[in-house]
Design a protein that fits this description.
GO biological process, one term: L-valine biosynthetic process
CATH topology of the largest domain: Rossmann fold
EC number: 2.2.1.6
Distance between the termini: 73 Å
CATH architecture of the largest domain: 3-Layer(aba) Sandwich
Cofactor: thiamine diphosphate; Mg(2+)
Organism: Candidatus Nanopelagicus hibericus
Shape: globular
Largest sheet: 6 strands, parallel
Helix content: 25-40%
CATH class of the largest domain: Alpha Beta
Strand order of the largest sheet: 3-2-4-5-7-6
Protein name: Acetolactate synthase
Number of strands: 19
Radius of gyration: 24 Å
Strand content: 15-25%
Number of domains: 3
Structural class: alpha/beta
Amino acid sequence: MGKMNGAQSLVNALEAAGVDVMFGIPGGAILPAYDPIFDSKIRHILVRHEQGAGHAATGYAQATGRVGVCIATSGPGATNLVTPLADAQMDSVPMVAITGQVPSAAIGTDAFQEADIRGVTMPITKHNYLITNPDDIPQAIAEAFYIASTGRPGPVLVDIAKDALQKETTFNYPKTVSLAGYNPVLEPKSEAVRDAAALIAQSKKPLLYVGGGVIKANAARELMQLAEITGAPVVTTLMARGAFPDSHNQHLGMPGMHGTVAAVTALQKADLLITLGARFDDRVTGKLSTFAPNAKIIHADIDPAEIGKNRHADVALIGDLKNILKVLNPATKAALAKSAPDLTPWLNEVYGWRKKFPLGYDKPADGSVSPQYVIERIGKISGPDTIFAAGVGQHQMWASQFIGYEKPRTWLNSGGLGTMGYAVPAAMGAKVGAPDTTVWAIDGDGCFQMTNQELVTCALNNIPIKVAVINNESLGMVRQWQTLFYNERYSNTDLHSKRVPDFKLLAEAMGCVGMRCEKPEDVDKTIEAAMAINDRPVVVDFNVHRDAMVWPMVAAGTSNDDITVARSMAPVWDSQEL
């Protein structure tokens, strides 16, 4: 190619990287790039807030497995991407963020709309760049996509000075990328595989502890094979919902602070945790010193820094999870063929817990709508192919508990950072990536008021998502903690959302169909009416009971042994189970 400016080189590089869509907002420093974007085959979706662009990129990435892309200008445009970048880093989501920077001569002078976004995001990105020479743009873009999508996925930021976008250069996109010091280990060591198989063959109480890494590695099929080979029960963390079918008999549900009694208890009483792409998060382990006291640990992860970070690993399997399972499965099968412990007592025990302590909820005595019922019915009526994106709070936990997930990449949420306002823009990104799939955002009235402006983006760009606002007119999870731990002193959690704003009218003002449901008997027909609309976004304001709580619960900082199934109610165990 001949001479061009840096901006054209940037757009050419994004096209060469395979980008088909990006979410963003122009501004002064990034403006040169928006001129060639006008002629590019890349679909640019003009969002209403940079945070929306970032979460849309992560939603797209989570639903498709491809790298999500967002673009913003310098200063406040770039800093508005900080939360989505931190979110993507915590949840290992492949994302590339392009930001404009003030001209290179002005960097460090406190120029208008200047922010050291590279410095700001250094701890919350997998890698980042500041480009001041237009000749460096293609190489930086190629490296950014390579780093974001290989090894442990994550966000990469490319900050480009305005003059680098304006200066003349020659486009030269690299055919291959090789980075000194960056060599993700993809294949596990054979001796570690052998040791893991031997441990599995010795275990009388094994448990498959499955994290989101299984979905990132597209290893659900191999996970199913391991489950069938071992016969071991399976738990799927909040980030792993859908990695293993909820309907499968070996599935115990989700562990953690609001996990099922069977999943939490199985972790505590197992003699071996076969840990696959999970990170021993504090929401899963509870008080770490009391977590799974009798269990040996097999820890499989692509990131060696995770091994032993929170819990000592007896066997470390470092590599791509799909590759690990491809060799671990036959090795385990061979080891079990020589000696297979009888798992019957263990399975009777864990399946007994599952039967004795199923998930459930009480219908409100005043006849109002139960939030759990609404979410359960949305899951049933929408079916297993639907993609669900949740905000953060009670509705997120109920959506993880009461919707059955049968397939990977059908459950999107902010698991690590816990970002309120994630659902609407993430659902938008997911719908762009999977346009033929029904996408529901399950949002709370608090979360919804943070990022609902992206419904305008959806309405104008033919992105017909569906949004269920679980409206309990309060910051529900915080209110639950105030109920349980602050003597019902509800300091600043009352949002009055059933009065202001009127979500139905707000939705209609943004070009969507607005609905409201206030009676249990209207829930099904309201959901069915929303399902029938596919030419515009739909928002349903579900007015639900205010004081519903999320159970079971392991209070923060306590042991998983102290799980409660309702207020001041712990499981009653048979004497032989203690």
